[in-house]
Amino acid sequence: MTNNRLREMPAALVLQHFVTCLSILATLFILVWVLGYSSYGLDFTDESFYLVWMADPFLYEVSATQFGFVYHPLSVLLKGDISALRQANILITFGLAWAMTCLLLHSLAPEARERRVVLHAVAAGLATSALIFFDSWLPTPGYDSLALQSLLITGIGLLLAETKLTPRSLSGWIVIGIGGWLAFMAKPSTALALAFGVCFCLLVSRKFSLQPLLLAAAVAIVLLLISALLIDGSVEGFVERVRLAIEFAKYIGGGHTAAEILRIDNFLLPARTKHAILFVLVATLVAIWGALSKKALGLIATLVASIGYFAITAVLALGEITGTAGLGQFQGLLISGVAFSAALSGVLFARMKLFDNTSAAQWGLGILFLFMPHIYAFGTNGNYWESGSSAGIFWLLAGVTVIAPIARDRKAWTFAIPFALATQAIAATLLQTGFEEPQRQPQPLRLNDTNVAIGISRSNLTLPNTYATYISGAMTAAQDSGFRLGDPAIDLSGQSPGILYAIGAANIGQAWTIGGYPGSLKLAQAALELVSCEKIAAAWVLYEPDGPRSIPVELMHWLGAAFPGNYEQVSTWRTAEGAGGYAESRIQQLWKPAAAQDTQRGCRALREKETK
């Protein structure tokens, strides 16, 4: 018996080192792969809205989300370089996820602390699930990325916070306050749901204590007050900003009213997705069994599963496969396969230890993590399951809390390496979808072959030739027409914040004058009525005749501007096929103000009439 163990132990130890190295290598592959694509592609709608908002957030009087103000210092620091902003966003997201996962694993099994390399390898592997956020390839910092980062920060705070006010615990409560503040700056709806979630977690965890909770609330309130003063110069001005944003949201009819966001969504998985989830669940469960059994068959099972998962990550990251898994709208739910395998492992292999050795604090945090993706998605007009899967790391970590008794019993997280490898394979699979089918872009990123420098910062991006031609043509035409960087512009196309950003225009009224909704015209009018008549008179106009999202020209008349009478058409170009998510190419026109004084007088006359 002893001799058999002596023969088995070296093999098990070698396997542990081998799979740990595989996991570390897979994490590096994924990070290099994602960061390498940071200069590829551009979405002319949502992503360009992020860029416009970050570049000069103080230009706008109304905003429901304040992410532009949070990310503006980063934009200034990186001189508006789009590629650098994307890389920063990727690294911040991954870094926060890694830090939170490390803290979670340590808190679940303090006994495993001596094997730091393994702990960090497992944590880094699991943290790659946060990169699933980029599976539609919108890597530029925006309100969704800030919402995810705020939840990760809050998770870190909850792991540090205790009822006893030690320096570590105090830092945790302060971090919770910072997370809550950032959640509000990203999405007030998420902040509201998070507040309820944190209170519930603290109650279940038996950490609810009025004094430290007031500290966290005070930190959030103080940061919010400072933000209000920096943004609007007064609390009253900031409150008015948010109040108007709520009122404007009712105009557009985009599904953001209170009655519409309080809902329970369903999801329907295609057969391929169900089979993929089941495969991940079974394969990972078998690998965990093998890692725990130390029998020859078990070691072989762990080795085969680990190499298989690593191979998937490697061939995708190295570009050996150019297709996608084709898992459909709810592909992000693939991560539930690993979460379920973790939960089942705890039930099957920890058995009664699951209930004996799991504290109330761990159960409380696990339950909160289970709901965190819906907290992230709360308030969106999209399906909550689809949107929430971008924060699927929390589902995964909720499952990991169930296997804590095994880690404590074995004093190590080595057995969890297959979880990390499975997570990395899933992250790579879903990221591949983003690279092959980037949102509202005509081709896979790998086929982009034309470099173009856009915007005031002259950021270099690698784009499809058609996109590069579209942007370069618009930039040249605008420059030849006398357009100067920073000139104000009104976007009547309803979908081109990206082209205005590229030519260096200052989008007035809204960072994205969005069209295509029942109340788009009313919203555009309301936003532009907050802009001075001087700016409206000086503004150029981007017009897209008969465009699918075009804002009616009545908008200009309601502002006191006679369009096209008091304007001169100076340039015309065609959009690229696929721009804005529309396959057909369309004509866009750039109009220059030719009678600014008349427009200014007309604007003032209308406003004086309205005030009487």
TrEMBL record:
Which residue ranges does UniProt annotate as crossing the membrane?
12-38, 90-109, 115-134, 173-204, 213-231, 275-292, 299-318, 330-349, 361-379, 391-408, 415-435
Domain of life, per the record? Bacteria
Q: Which UniProt keywords apply?
A: Membrane, Transmembrane, Transmembrane helix
The answer on whether this UniProt entry bears the keyword Nucleotide-binding reads no
Q: Does the keyword Secreted apply?
A: no
This chain belongs to the protein called Membrane protein
Species this chain originates from = Pseudorhizobium pelagicum
